[in-house]
Amino acid sequence: MQEVKSLIHRFLYSHLNEDGGFKDRSGNSDLYYTVFALECLHALQGDIPKEQTTKYLLGFREVEKLDFVHLSCLVRAAAAVGIQDKIDGKRILECMAEYKAQDGGYNVTKEQQHGSAYANFLLLGAYQDLDIGMPDAIKNAIVYNLRSLEATDGGYANMPNMPQGNVTASAAAIAILYAWQIPLGNHLAMWLMNHCIDGGFCNNLTFPVPDLLSTATALHSLSYLKANIEPIVEPGLDFVDSLWTNSGGFYGNWTDDILDCEYTFYGLLALGHLSL
Fold first, then answer.
1. How far apart are CA 29 and CA 21, in angstroms?
2. Which residues are in coiled coils (predicted)?
3. Has residue 33 been placed in a domain?
4. Which of 26, 59, 135, 189 is the 20 to 30 Å CA partner of 3?
5. Residue among 143, 109, 113, 108 at smallest CA distance from 126
6. Portion of the chain with pLDDT greater than 90, in percent
7. Do 59 and 87 contact (CB within 8 A), yes or no?
8. Burial class (CB in 10 A: 0-12, 13-18, 19+), 224
């Protein structure tokens, strides 16, 4: 196990650029991939390049130029290196508020009619990382939005009135409702388990091909639901192992040919739940 941890640690550091950011799939520093790299290092209890990454993060002074996802990533990365008090959290939340949809939820694109589970999840994470209480009005609007995102089949989608939910949107919704101690439907565990194919989880049943993102988020959700995953542990470990490379990274799915910090994080998350 120590050898594996060392391989992953070296892989992550091979993706650290001189400016303190971590590489995206093109090799450029990106806040999104930096978050996943830092989360991996925390999980491995590895050394965090705090000085380098702090310099990189504090370089984002004009936060209004960042999109919704990267605003949330700046907050998450800052929290990961312990400098959330050095960024303008209030201004970041003001910028994220510009992505409020007409139904009161939040979307990763401005001026949308409906919020999405993913954007709502990112907003909640930003409030939590900044240690700022989310106003009740925003919280209630998000809950209302999530109710509208319940699909006909019992899962959650990122759009209202959908016949099928998908795993990643459902995972985001479950995480929010769990954080707010709102009762979760008893059917959700079975709904998620129905998306398990050959040990991995697919995002939707229309395209039943398992991937690491869906697998990790499904397993994480099943832990919230206190579901019994014993029947899928061995095939699950085999699936995750099939995406592992001895360079220390994980592929996102069987057709992927690029390693990155994001899917390496999801590999570790999946293994963590399967190994409990």
1. 5
2. none
3. no
4. 26
5. 108
6. 97
7. no
8. middle
Task: Look up the domain containing 233 and give its range.
Answer: 184-276
Specify the DSSP element, H or E, that contains 197: strand 196-197
Q: How many domains does the chain have?
A: 1
pLDDT per position as a tens digit, 7-26: 999 999 999 999 999 999 99
Contact 185, 179 (CB under 8 A): no
Rounded Cα distance between 276 and 274, Å, is 6
Pairing of strands 200-201, 196-197: antiparallel
How confident is the model over 38-63, as pLDDT tens digits? 999 999 998 999 999 999 999 999 99
Cβ pair 89, 130 in contact under 8 A = yes
Is position 173 within any domain? no
* CA-based torsion, 13, 214, 121, 101: positive or negative: positive
- What is the pTM (predicted TM-score) of this model? 0.97
pLDDT in tens, 87-144: 999 999 999 999 999 999 999 999 999 999 999 999 999 999 999 999 999 999 999 9
CB 147 within 8 A of CB 202: no
